[in-house]
Amino acid sequence: QAAYYSAHHAAAQFEEQLPHHSQTNTDGTGSHDALIQRLERPHPSLEYSLGIICKDVGAQMRMLKPLREIAAYRLQETVRVDQAEEAIASAKDVIAECTKGLRKLRAGSRS
Fold first, then answer.
1. 35 — alpha (psi -120 to 50), left (phi > 0) or beta?
2. Which of 12, 3, 11 is nearest to 70 (CA)?
3. CB-based burial, 9-48: b 16+ in 10 Å, e otherwise
4. CB under 8 Å to 49, separation ≥6 — which residues?
5. Phi, psi of 98 (to 5 degrees)
6. SS3 of 100, please?
7. Which DSSP symbol is given to 51?
8. Which tens digit of pLDDT belongs to each residue from 19-66?
9. What SS3 state is found at 49?
10. What is the longest distance spanned by two Cα atoms in the chain?
11. How confident is the model over 54-80, as pLDDT tens digits?
């Protein structure tokens, strides 16, 4: 769970800083799924590389979410060691991508 939430917070912070937000309608969607959907469908006027980062982060978060649900809600199920290791690696990738995106945003605001 910690890996997922670390990645989720990094993704939310990155998405919050974007100059243009997704136009995807996420009404009636849970906050975690809404964030993933917005990242998967970035605003078309975003700089290309930021759009790629959004889509990559969204895809990785979509893959992480089921393991978080098992760990949090389906306590009778077991998360295998390889699944936990993969979740940690994916969370690290998400955080790295978000950090790269935030750096790009900061660099662009100084221009």
1. alpha
2. 3
3. ebbbebbeebeeebeeeeeeeeebebbbbbbbbbbeebbe
4. 104
5. -65, -40
6. helix
7. H
8. 999 999 999 999 999 999 999 999 999 999 999 999 999 999 999 988
9. helix
10. 53
11. 999 999 999 998 877 766 666 676 777
Gyration radius from the chain CA atoms: 15
Tokens of 13: 């912070």
What is the Cα–Cα distance from 7 to 5, expressed in whole angstroms?
5
Residues 6 or more apart from 93 whose CB is under 8 A from it?
A: 60
Cα distance between residue 97 and residue 11, in whole Å = 9
Instruction: Please choose, from the candidates 34, 29, 98, 92, the residue with its C-alpha nearest in 3D space to the C-alpha of residue 64.
Output: 92
pTM for the model: 0.88
